[in-house]
Hints:
alpha/beta; Inosine-uridine Nucleoside N-ribohydrolase, Chain A; 20 strands
Amino acid sequence: MKSLLSFLSVILFSSFFAQAQIKIILDTDPSADPDDVGCMAMLHNMASLGECEIMAMINSTHYKQSSLSIDAINHFYNRGAIPIGDYKGYEEKIEAPYTNYDYHLARAYPRSLKSWKEALDGVALYREVLASAEDKSITVAIIGTMHNFYALLKSEADVYSSLSGKDLVEQKVKEVVTMGGNFIDGKGYDRTNWGGADQLCSYTEWSCLNESRNRMCRYVIDNCPSPFIASGWEVGCGDYYEANYGNVMTGQSLIKLDSNHILRRSYEYHFKTRRETPEISRHSNDQCALHYAVRGEQENYVAVRNGNISLSTAGVCTWTAEENNQQGYIQKARDKELIAEEIEYLMMLPPNEIDPSAPSAPQNLKWAKDREYHKLHWEASKDETKGSWVVAYHLYHEDAFIGRANGTQFSLGEMPESGGKLELRAVNASGIESESAWIDLP
């Protein structure tokens, strides 16, 4: 009887998530701390369970290898077609230090991107994906810095949308979930993602205030038009700065994985370059934020909503209850060990196998003239296979590849001189193409 009940609970559990599937953009900073890789593993595995569709992954660091490591991770999980963005606003991109796992992943694992320069502009990718999305359909999970999202909010109309960045976010984004800030007793100090704090210089040097990160985050907090929910440092790292909320520790079980598993190697690279120890567990700040972003509160978290988050120029994070405001934060709602067990399970599931079945072909192709562009529009294709979804469309002319769209529109500045027809194919996350749809050139 107990086995039957367990079986039924799994069926109901899976059914719930099939109905609650969300579309998500992950904005991350893979570099030194391996919890970003833990998040990407979780996200791929939750997608395999049918809980979410990964529409894009975007890097916010200034390291050349960071976006390449995202590509390597996506290929490891057999979803190499997921579009990858990179923040292009830095004055200079630099080589990742040897102590970073992104340095090693970019060298040791297969990937498609030959250089960080081939990664898409992160802000343009945001705009392209959002422009084709249904209203209030996208969850944005930011587990790195605010570089890309800040630039998105400040962006203006472009080839993808006539809307400003703020208007595009307001129309298309269901919720923004971010790891950062601190909400112990309603007032605390951010550690690094939101810019750090003056107060923390004596606690740890890398938590000192970073003015540009602080400025960007203050702008995002003050101007984000969609619901904005923070998972503070105290959620995953509960002993942070004279607090004792309990750490959510994950990673040690990764030693059970194959020695070349990309997740295990990321954690081992991180710890080996810092100290020789068999201990590879780490507090799970980013994982808790992503866990909530996909699964919501359930029994793991409680969300405190209807309030205002304020971040000072010194890095002090203050929460004030305020009715009808769209900001909030989460706290742990059950034992840290139980949350850690669930997160670690999601990290360690095996990679999704490639399903050779193709998505449906694009339908209802139409031309429109938009300023100097000829813009091709179509209806979104579907992929009914569990753990698979459409991430892009490939455009061909006379069997030659001429471009990729990460939404349901494509703009041509100049028409092919030979005329004829264009061929469009949907592409799922594993890179499997649909049958072709055809349209005459205008």
